[in-house]
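Example 3.2
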Amino acid sequence: MRLEGQAQRVTVYVSHTDKWKGHHLATAIIQQCQQMGMAGATASLGVLGFGKRAAIHRTHLFGGSEDVPEKIEIVDRPERIAVLLPVLEEMAQGGLILVQDVQVVRPAHDRSST
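Structure, written as tokens:
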């Protein structure tokens, strides 16, 4: 899907150890977004952060990690984001969900057209 102009970005902050029906939550969210045909979604691990319980979560020096923060970002048209939000609210019950208006100035290359 080609996405240009006005769009919205949803950012979901969760813990890397969060689960959805026994599966890694961020992976489940990305898969759900793909099934719903969203324009794009990315998950990133944080190095250091804290949330509602104010406990610091961090990645350790030699690769081990505690309960590190994870961020999922989804971009699509506002009307499609509106359909996705109730799904995210159910999946990420302990997470923080932000919605921001954005403008896509350089759309990703559409691989299906080449």
